[in-house]
Amino acid sequence: MNGQTNTKRMSGWDLTREIARKTCCKKTFLACLLVLSVSVEVSNAACYVEPLKPVNPGDEIKGCYDSKGELHEFDSQWKTEDCYECSCSREGIDCCTIYSTPVGYDKEKCVSIFNKETCTYEVVEKNDHSKTCPVYEMVG
Question: Which tens digits make up the pLDDT trace of 121-134?
Fold first, then answer.
């Protein structure tokens, strides 16, 4: 090639299309990053998995035993008193929180209070619990 560089001349139309393609790709990439960052924040539920285990070694496994020792049939779901939604499968017990935790609010003026009966948080003023505070972000 005796030291010459191979350059391709583009017509005005080809150059416009190439710039549009690169701009479109950058915008698509940025949109994907935005969706991913929001998805990570939104899907921040606390979950855990417990593998199946027989009550006694050598016993046949007939379902899932929860932390209270109650047997749950395979393919069943239940809610715990600690606000977890659990399911039993042949792989074990999967449990995830069913509530969202407020994180975006004025922490100097307000406090979040968890209601175990409804599995929800309420954000209220520290000095007057009858006044609710605005919440801008939740996790879980």
Answer: 999 999 999 999 99
